Design the sequence.
């Protein structure tokens, strides 16, 4: 089965109460949603909570999802709304911790495997670069940041992103373009490395 | 007979004439200022400032008041919003999104006797504010200490043209000063209603003032009041507190000393010691270099231990924490069975003393 | 060279695929002749690649367990079973019994609230502080105008 058909199948099963199917949907989408939320609220605890809330709410309103194929976008919509409520209530006024985001720490790196035994991280991006990327992302506006995370990291299409954000695809394109310019400037030292190493 | 009658009349004239030695009591002026907008309408512009977390929030507000209702329209560089007090509800307007939020604050009955018992009001002189002659009044704690409130009251209407509020440590935490003011101008009552084009986005339910027994039934555990309270505070009532998405039934006990408000929140302990409760980077208890692992996938170290169980990789999580907002402080204290949060304009020590004096079950 | 000024602003749009038709071909034409803009396009593309190579972060390990617990509420299950067994009339009685049972059981710490997570310190205290704002407004002798500043949210959500 193709990826999309698999997801649709899981959604249909979850809709009729199959928790195992929902768990598999969770495993597939948790990193995307968590990263997306984290890029907005900039705090791991809050992002973890909101990720939970997103999936709980998704479970509760699964019946209202008309197109099982649009599950990922729909999940992002839920996450987006929760982030917006969080920010408005003023409770998201927590300081960003740069080192926390980039995974720097005082201790040695633990060996952590992904839950579903997926492909091990291949070390293509060093910790310093990741830190620089997140720092640069943080300087973007929330809308630009969201578009970048969804497009580049989660590999969502412009149309999908447009539906999540509730704007025209052209608006997403221009956000991506503006963000790309800003990030290119901000990451210049890395991007301009002659030998192309990252 | 007649001379003594004339003498009484003269005495009465002196007393009501407000000459120096028979001036109205400062407290009377203070209470009169609280009801000024019931007697006259007010339209004006005020500069207002709040010191919060070491930074200053400030804005210019357009004020309108009539028949005891008030409205402030705020303008900062980045934002615009309005607040309406129509006597029943507090309404927040977002003009950009055309949304209104309504709150129904429990109206603390202004227990004037309590304020007068705990504080001293004295006239400290005269000044000109917004081009009008005003009487300056300072309100200080009866037991000594810096002033909590300074008011400049318009001599003609009694309206507070300027206010300064100080915290228990004597630091200025808020100030509002009118730079322009007009009394008696017509004020439309539409100003104090939600415009019909707005959507009411959020409505906080009315907060009942409950007795301790009623509160105990609502939250499902016996709510014991703190046995220690700073001097002068009395219990106003209890409320169920709303923590939003946290499903923790919490009781709030509210106290006042006539001017300052103190809250003690109680709840039973939740699932402590899980990874979520290990605090965030930057809170008091975990600044001790716990750090986050240099996880390749960005996991933090302490999350590896899984949930449940109090034995994590970090220091104990049930430590007392403090927050200082300037105008008030808060403490969170973990007792063996009850978690207590105390919020108010008190010193840290006093907050903690109150928290610790809540009976554990 | 002078032309670069015009094209500079369009390169990012070109790279993300926002340009179509003639606008796109004009940029491509310019790129054929202009090494500087070509280098800039390369830098923009490398930025994109960098972002794409940045891995997603995983939610903490215990998250699924919390979710599965929340979506499988015990109370609801009990009610459903009773409903099937006892019929509509008796289910009302059953629900009342359950509610009473919670009140009786709670002091011993066995109600569902005992399983709820404890919020992080700053969040819980912030919630406590902010919950008092309407009361702070209504308190005697409060500086309403200044209390109103507390309604200003930290982010310029507008």
Sequence:
């Amino acid at each position: 089965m193709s990826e999309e058909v698999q997801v649709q199948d899981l959604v249909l099963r979850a809709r009729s109460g199959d928790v195992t199917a929902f768990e598999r949907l969770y495993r597939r989408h948790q990193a995307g949603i968590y990263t997306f939320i984290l890029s907005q609220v900039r705090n791991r605890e809050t992002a973890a909570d909101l990720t939970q809330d997103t999936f709980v709410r998704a479970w509760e309103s699964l019946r209202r999802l008309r197109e099982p194929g649009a599950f990922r976008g729909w999940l992002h919509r839920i996450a987006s709304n929760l982030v917006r409520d969080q920010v408005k209530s003023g409770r998201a006024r927590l300081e960003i911790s740069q080192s926390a985001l980039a995974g720097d720490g005082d201790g040695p790196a633990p060996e952590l495997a992904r839950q579903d035994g997926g492909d091990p991280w291949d070390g293509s991006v060093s910790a310093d670069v990741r830190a620089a990327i997140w720092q640069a992302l943080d300087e973007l506006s929330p809308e630009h940041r969201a578009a970048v995370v969804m497009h580049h990291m989660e590999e969502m299409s412009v149309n999908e992103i447009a539906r999540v954000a509730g704007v025209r695809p052209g608006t997403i394109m221009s956000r991506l373009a503006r963000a790309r310019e800003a990030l290119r400037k901000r990451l210049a030292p890395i991007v301009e490395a002659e030998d192309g190493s990252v | 007979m007649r001379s003594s009658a004339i003498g009484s009349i003269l005495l009465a004239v002196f007393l009501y004439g407000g000459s120096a030695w028979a001036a109205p009591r400062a407290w009377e002026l203070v209470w009169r200022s609280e009801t000024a907008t019931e007697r006259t309408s007010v339209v004006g512009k005020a500069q207002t400032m709040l010191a919060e977390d070491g930074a200053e929030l400030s804005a210019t507000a357009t004020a309108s008041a009539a028949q005891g209702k008030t409205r402030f329209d705020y303008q900062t560089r980045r934002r615009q919003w309005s607040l309406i007090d129509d006597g029943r509800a507090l309404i927040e307007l977002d003009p950009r999104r055309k949304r209104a939020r309504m709150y129904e604050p429990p109206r603390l009955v202004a227990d004037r006797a309590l304020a007068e018992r705990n504080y001293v009001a004295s006239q400290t002189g005269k000044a000109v504010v917004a081009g009008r002659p005003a009487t300056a009044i300072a309100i200080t704690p009866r037991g000594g200490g810096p002033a909590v409130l300074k008011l400049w009251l318009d001599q003609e209407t009694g309206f507070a043209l300027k206010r300064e509020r100080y915290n228990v440590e004597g630091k200025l935490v808020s100030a509002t000063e009118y730079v322009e003011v007009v009394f008696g101008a017509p004020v439309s009552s539409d100003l104090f209603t939600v415009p019909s084009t707005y959507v009411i986005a959020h409505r906080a339910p009315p907060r009942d003032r409950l007795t301790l027994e009623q509160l105990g039934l609502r939250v499902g555990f016996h709510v014991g009041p703190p046995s220690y309270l700073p001097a002068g505070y009395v219990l106003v009532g209890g409320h169920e507190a709303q923590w939003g998405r946290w499903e923790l039934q919490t009781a709030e006990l509210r106290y006042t000393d006539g001017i300052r408000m103190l809250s003690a929140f109680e709840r039973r302990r939740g699932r402590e010691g899980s990874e979520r409760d290990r605090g965030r980077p930057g809170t008091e208890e975990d600044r001790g270099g716990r750090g986050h692992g240099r996880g390749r996938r960005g996991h933090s170290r302490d999350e590896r231990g899984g949930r449940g169980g109090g034995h994590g990789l970090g220091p104990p999580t049930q430590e007392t924490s403090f927050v200082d907002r300037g105008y008030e402080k808060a403490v969170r204290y973990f007792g063996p069975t009850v978690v207590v949060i105390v919020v108010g304009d008190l010193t840290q020590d006093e907050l903690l003393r109150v928290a610790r004096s809540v009976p554990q079950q | 060279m002078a032309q670069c000024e015009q094209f500079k602003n369009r390169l990012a749009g070109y790279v993300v695929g926002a340009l179509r038709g003639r606008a796109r071909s004009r940029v491509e034409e310019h790129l054929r002749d202009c090494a500087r803009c070509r280098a800039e396009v390369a830098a923009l593309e490398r930025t994109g690649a960098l972002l794409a190579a940045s891995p997603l972060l995983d939610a903490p390990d215990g998250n699924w367990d919390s979710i599965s617990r929340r979506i499988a509420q015990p109370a609801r299950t009990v009610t459903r079973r009773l409903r099937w067994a006892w019929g509509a009339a008796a289910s009302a009685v059953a629900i009342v019994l359950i509610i009473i049972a919670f009140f009786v059981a709670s002091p011993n710490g066995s109600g569902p609230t005992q399983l709820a997570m404890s919020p992080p310190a700053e969040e819980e205290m912030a919630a406590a502080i902010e919950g008092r704002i309407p009361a702070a407004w209504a308190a005697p002798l409060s500086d309403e105008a200044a209390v109103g500043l507390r309604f200003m949210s930290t982010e310029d959500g507008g």
In short: The CA atoms of residues 35 and 68 of chain B lie 7 Å apart. Residues 23-203 of chain B form a domain with the outer membrane lipoprotein receptor (LolB), chain A fold (CATH 2.50.20.10).
